[in-house]
Amino acid sequence: MxxxxxxxxxxxxxxxxxxxxxxxxxxxxxxxxxxxxxxxREEMDLLGWDSCDVIIVTxxxxxxxxxxxxxxxxxxxxxxxxxxxxxxxPEWENAEAFKALGKPNLYYGVTGGNMDSMINRYTADRxxxxxxxxxxxxEGGKRPDRSVIVYSQRCREAxxxxxxxxxxxxxxxxxxxxxxxxxxxxxxxxxIDSKADILLYGNxxxxxxxxxxxxAAGEAPKDIDDIRGTVIVRKEIPEGWTxxxxxxxxxDNDLHHIPDRAEAxxxxxxxxxxxxxxxxxxxxxxxxxxxxxxxxxxxxxLESNAGNARVxxxxxxxxxxxxxxxxIPLTTPEMDGVFDLTYARAPHPVYGDAKLAAWDMIRFSxxxxxxxxxxxSFCSIxxxxxxxxxxxxxxxxxxxxxDIRDKVDGFTGQITDMGGPTANMYRMACKDDKxxxxxxxxSCVYPDICKNLDTSHESLIQLYRxxxxxxxxxxxxxxxxxxxxxxxxxxxxxxxxxxxHVGGYLKIAPEHTEERALSKMMKPGIGTYDRFKSMxxxxxxxxxxxxYLIPYFIAAHPGCEDEDMxxxxxxxxxxxxxxxxxxxxxxxxxxxxxxxYHSERNPLRPIRRSSGExxxxxxxxxxxxxxxxxxxxxxxxxxxxxxxxxxxxxRADLIGPGKKHLVPAHQPIGTGDNxxxxxxxxxxxxxxxxxxxxxxxxxxxxxxxxxxxxxxASGNTDGPARGATAHGKAKPGGKPARRKPTGxxxxxxx
Length: 750
Description:
- Belongs to the UPF0313 family.
- Residues 358-624 form the Radical SAM core domain.
- Keywords: 4Fe-4S, Iron, Iron-sulfur, Metal-binding, S-adenosyl-L-methionine.
- Its cofactor is [4Fe-4S] cluster.
- Residues 659-750 are annotated as: Disordered.
- By secondary structure, the chain is of the alpha/beta class.
- Among the domains are: 19-235 and 318-323, no CATH class; 364-501, Transcription Regulator spoIIAA, CATH 3.30.750.210; 508-522 and 546-677, no CATH class.
- A ten-stranded mixed β-sheet has the order 3-1-4-5-8-9-13-12-11-10, sandwiched between helices. Strands 23-24-28-25 form a four-stranded mixed β-sheet.
- Strand 10, helix 9 (261-270) and strand 11 (276-279) form a beta-alpha-beta unit.
- The chain is globular.
- The chain starts with a helix and ends in a 22-residue tail after the last strand.
- Mean pLDDT is 88; it is low at 1-15 and 684-750.
């Protein structure tokens, strides 16, 4: 039976895979399609179910929409004929909530949700967030830290003999030994810590369909070792496999002494790729040696192309985790099939009138593609979704827009976004499939756009035009982040975008201005931003529209020094930007930037002990807060730390009252170190609060007393997890716009 099922699965030797909708349906298909996947026994009774075949446990509220992982996996398995129940955000103190739907016939599927639970719960300063966009009414604290581990433990307590399958972004990005920012240490693979039977990583449609049919046919998940996109635990290497040390496959590293490295590589190239495993340093080794950790991170990223990746093996104690090759990307018909499933396109009725911020954000938006070939080192999209762009067909996308128009309550005619991980990679691909299968580049666009990459925007332009022509559609906005270094290749696309799809501002992500920082991020130089801005402004002027760019920036990224942040702040002021929301770099699991942060080495190149590059990294809270403060140079609360830093950098010339200065020399009462409780706070001789009183004024606000709280004195707020939002006031094609002051712009002492 095992061999028969296996033959129906993926073709191991090639890059093709069985269509996920071609499997013979499970017998339970007779029950039909559920309005919502059930969350209670009462709902199961109404559906005529006596049990669930699969129960998905998730850290998010259940929204039946293809932007939510539990909905995709649940509806996909339902389409295969399985009965799927949902346990969303259960109480985790004991196992009772995990028994709510009874014992699953096949397995529990456990996911932390659409975000890693630690990033969801904590800020870059390791402070607890008090809100959660994936929870009704934005309530925080409704999921445990490291949710996948905790949920798996409770599932095991509920029914000891039921297999546990873990997946989703949290499991995917913690599949190997990984640095954990919140505990400041390297942790074991989440598969080991959760004691689950198998881990599915990446977009796991192929893996979950194949796995579930094989479990239904009698196989145990822990014994299924040949599905791509999975991680299992093994005691020994199977017969017939070649195991190569990771230092054999990467040129110019000196981590291990190999007598004849050329001969070792020759043998590796001659070995059967489908029977070759790459040995990563063990969990114990990467804890003890940061250089090995950095090189292991580099190799994991090099082995991410589904066309040429090899199996990877990493020892944890006396066991190996066996990381199978990445999943083969979905074809366009398969993508259409996934997004065309029967979703209710609404939160489960159990939530009543409660607000769900994550749902409100995407309810009128359309996902047109997956994946990203940008390879930004701080981002984990590539390691989860892959570099190959998986696009839906025009027909499927246009049909979804019509469904939103006809079926989603509250629709007023505006599609709020039509994009994906990026706005403008739709249908872009390598020009030669053979080249793509052997490519091992970390990015298709850095340091330069690959000559083999087709950057045509024509398909996207045609899609925009057809979507706008749908009856009842008044406006289509583009809110997904734009990859502007590709957009400049198509003036026609920029014109189309500006003329029809930007309604005031457009988000883009230069991330920094300084090459030292940008080279560690794998982002283009600021000159590319200038070129895009020029084209954007020209298109806006021609269209008769006043539009603004909203650039995102990252503070405290590895490789970014105090001087770099100072230069970025100078650039911001010169260009008239004041950042509303800023956030420091968060070392997310598995990202290359995280390896830089932890090891202080550069995994974008082979690691060398003797002459390798050392990456200066802001780790202490004082320095990280300084970098964050540079992004909010205009906030008086930041002026004391900025003045100190500018003096230390030998740039006291930037302190003063003029336009050429970054921060003033004076400190308004009630701000920074001149407020109650602050060191050095001045008091009058009579004991009253405040030092020498004076008036301060702000452009556009008239004259105000310094101790009257003004908008410019507002504190930092936690912004998007990826960077900082800078609200610019630059006129298209011209100098930064300046508000006309309603009062005199001067300060008068009394």
